[in-house]
Design goal:
The complex is a heterodimer.
Chain A: H1 2-52, H2 56-60, H3 74-81, H4 85-116, H5 120-131, H6 135-149, H7 155-179, H8 183-192, H9 196-207, H10 209-225, H11 228-233, H12 241-246, H13 256-280
Chain B: E1 4-13, E2 16-26, E3 31-35, H1 42-50, E4 57-62, E5 65-66, H2 72-75, E6 77-80, H3 92-102, H4 107-121, H5 136-148, E7 154-158, H6 166-183, E8 186-191, H7 194-200, E9 203-208, E10 211-216, H8 218-223, H9 228-233, E11 240-249, E12 252-256, E13 262-264, E14 278-283, E15 288-290, E16 300-312, E17 316-323, E18 326-333, E19 343-349, E20 354-356
Parallel strand pairs in B: 3-8, 3-9, 6-7, 7-8
Antiparallel strand pairs in B: 1-2, 1-4, 4-5, 9-10, 11-12, 11-14, 12-13, 14-20, 15-19, 16-17, 16-19, 17-18
The chains are: A mainly alpha, B alpha+beta.
Bound molecules: adenosine-5'-triphosphate (ATP) and magnesium ion.
Chain lengths: 292, 365
């Protein structure tokens, strides 16, 4: 008895040490791999940001300059001086407003499709098929229409277009999120005395919160990144930042400082949007609604 | 509180005829259990009653109003769902208060009512927890609490206990029954569990394929089923069914089985039985007992059988034997039979057996 109880701890301790060392080594390898992958993925972002602070000579220097000597803010100053930042504002207005509209109408439409089976399965497919059209194929008919209506180079023109273009996506995504909500939650609220609209507000939105934010972020990004519509349908008043960007590649001169600075500014909203989205995509938000 | 009246309710889901002409009168304050196998239309009927499902024909009355075109919120009913339907983003207090807020109760009134309901259900400690922090039984209590805080006219329950384990289910069954006795409200309870139906109901409505097969007080239905389906559905273990033929012998009528064995019908149960007729002989497990001889009781018919399987439960022992090639289960006393293979004389209580027409599946006798 005593012999066993003395020996056992020894055996356990040594085998434990071996396991611990092995687990440790594995962890180290994992960290190394993760670090390398992170560097590879973050490098372009780093390069983009760093370019914004370089002098024109440094942009083309060989060997490349890894850290600019005196973090020049010239690019940013020029953007503000020449009024280029207004185009970022234009982008914010068109993308932001159209996202709000698309989310509002899209979610209501999605609710109708999901819960009242409006149009059966076919309507939903037809709606998403609208999103698959290559933008370039509709941009010229649109141009003619907008020219006729006098909507070229107007905020409402672009906002309407982005709303229409993103609506199918919102409907499609939100329909899925809404269908995932246990219908009993809505039934229970209806029986409890709420109206349909109140149920939408008090049950469906909170339940689909993660989906709402994720969809809104992507909708915003689609509009934010649009180039082709904005290129054809705007002139000087409502130029968006991607279109403005092309104008920095001049015939005589390319404004590298502006390009770098604008790239940084153009990335920031997306960066913040995704950061905000991460906070809201909390898995298991619906846990406890039903069993399990 | 109110009575509920359904008149010829019809419901189609596309081609599927889910509810077929159901008429039902539920008196005020009664506990009615709608029971039936999966897919027979129980939930559909309950949802129609709540106004969550439109019906294709018929009328629904609550109190003295026809409510067909009334929104669920105006029907003033409360409903408890199978999967609890608690809002995961609200704590227990807010979950229970949700319906009161919808009806614009003043906040001090809400507070008293929520606490009252929580007290009644023993969940006062959990009021500030989220649903996911509760056990299944606690969640179900919250769901019930949400229903009872309002003065609903009618309470609907859709399989509220089916997600709970067996022990908890028994506890909650008692609580629901007590709740009904305390509140005295009209309650309609849907389940596919015949034990729940038997134990809870003032009246059982047995549904099959969207139609009412039989309705009545639990014991009436148990003792006087109208069809093979009802006889087999109520009771656990379920009734034994053995094909047989009626035969006349010495002025009495026997139930004769294909293996040559036969059991005499009591003389007061033979009217209308023509000899030669094919029947299905139905006998409940508890109506087969050990033959201890010298038992002069009328209507007991003895048969010698060989037990081939025994399942002791402690209080009783289920013994299975073959009759006309069909396995038949008897519920004997714990020590009536010790091991399979034993030969045993068993009494069949011929007063309690049923004879069923194999063509129509309706009970003849
Ligand atoms: N929304 C629906 N769309 C189409 N068919 C449906 C719908 N709801 C129910 N059904 C069908 O109607 C029939 C009755 O369904 P119901 O849910 O009322 O059954 P149930 O008796 O409650 O069954 P369970 O015990 O499984 O809950 C089933 O065949 C079911 O498939
Ligand atoms: Mg059901």
């Amino acid at each position: 008895m005593t012999a066993v109880s003395v020996q056992q701890p020894l055996g356990v301790a040594s085998s434990k040490g071996w396991w611990a060392r092995k687990a440790n080594r594995r962890l180290v390898v994992r960290y190394i791999v993760a670090t390398i992958v992170t560097i590879i993925f973050l490098f372009p972002v780093y390069w983009l940001f760093i370019m914004a602070f370089k002098t024109p000579e440094e942009v083309f220097a060989s060997p490349p300059v890894w850290l600019p000597s005196d973090f020049s803010l010239d690019g940013f100053v020029e953007l503000f001086r020449d009024g280029d930042v207004n185009t970022v504002m234009n982008s914010l207005i068109t993308a932001g407003t159209s996202t709000v509209f698309a989310m509002f109408f899209g979610t209501i439409a999605a609710y109708s499709l999901a819960r009242f089976k409006t149009g059966g399965d076919n309507l939903a497919i037809w709606i998403i098929s609208q999103r698959m059209i290559p933008p370039i194929t509709i941009v010229f008919p649109l141009f003619l229409m907008y020219a006729l209506l006098g909507w070229i180079d107007s905020f409402h023109g672009l906002i309407l277009l982005y709303t229409a273009f993103n609506l199918p996506y919102v409907i499609w995504m939100m329909r899925g999120y809404i269908e995932d909500i246990p219908i009993e939650l809505e039934h229970s609220a209806l029986v409890d005395g709420w109206t349909r609209w109140q149920v939408l507000w008090r049950v469906v939105f909170p339940m689909a919160r993660a989906g709402l934010f994720a969809t809104a972020v992507f909708t915003f990004i689609f509009a934010w990144n649009d180039f082709i519509f904005a290129l054809i349908l705007s002139r000087t008043e409502v130029t968006t930042f991607p279109v403005q960007m092309t104008r920095f590649f001049g015939h005589q001169q390319t404004f590298w400082g502006k390009i770098g600075a604008m790239s940084v500014i153009g990335t920031l909203p997306i960066f913040f949007a995704v950061a905000a989205m991460q906070r809201f995509i909390v898995r298991g938000i619906s846990m406890g609604a039903v069993k399990g | 509180m109110a009575r509920v009246r359904l008149n010829n309710i019809e419901k189609f889901y596309g081609e599927l005829h889910a509810v077929r002409g159901i008429s039902l009168d539920i008196p005020e304050g009664e506990f009615t259990v709608i029971v039936g196998p999966s897919g027979c239309g129980k939930s559909t009927l309950l949802r129609a009653l709540a106004g969550l499902e439109e019906i294709d024909a018929g009328t629904i009355e609550i109190g003295d109003e026809v409510v067909n075109d009334m929104a669920p919120r105006d029907r003033n009913i409360a409903m408890v769902f199978q999967n609890y339907a608690l809002y995961p983003y609200m704590n227990v207090y807010d979950n229970i208060a949700f319906g009161l807020r919808a009806r614009k109760f003043p906040s001090n009134e809400i507070e008293t009512r929520v606490h009252q309901a929580a007290d009644m259900l023993g969940i006062t400690d959990q009021l500030d927890r989220l649903p996911r922090q509760l056990s299944g039984g606690q969640r179900q209590r919250v769901a019930i609490g949400r229903a009872i805080v309002r003065d609903a006219r009618v309470f609907l329950f859709d399989e509220p206990l089916s997600n709970l384990d067996a022990k908890l289910r028994e506890e909650m069954r008692v609580e629901i029954k007590r709740l009904h006795q305390d509140l005295g409200k009209t309650m309609v309870y849907v389940t596919h569990d015949q034990i729940e139906a038997m134990t809870l109901a003032d009246r059982i409505v047995l549904l099959r394929n969207g139609k009412i097969e039989q309705e009545g007080a639990p014991l009436d239905m148990f003792e006087r089923p109208v069809s093979r389906f009802v006889a087999g559905f109520l009771g656990s273990p379920s009734m034994n069914f053995i094909p047989a033929r009626l035969a006349a012998e010495n002025g009495q009528i026997n139930v004769a089985f294909s293996d040559g064995l036969s059991l005499p019908m009591p003389s007061d149960r033979v009217s209308g039985l023509e000899p030669g007729r094919e029947v299905v002989f139905g006998v409940r497990t508890e109506h087969i007992t050990r033959d201890r001889g010298a038992n002069g009781r009328a209507g007991l018919a003895s048969l010698r059988v060989k037990i081939d399987l025994i399942q002791p439960t402690g209080t009783r022992t289920y013994a299975t034997f073959q009759l006309a090639g069909e396995p038949v289960m008897a519920e004997l006393e714990a020590h009536d039979v010790e091991r399979p293979g034993e030969q045993l004389s068993l009494f069949f209580d011929m007063n309690r057996i049923v004879l069923i027409d194999p063509e129509t599946d309706l009970v003849i006798q």
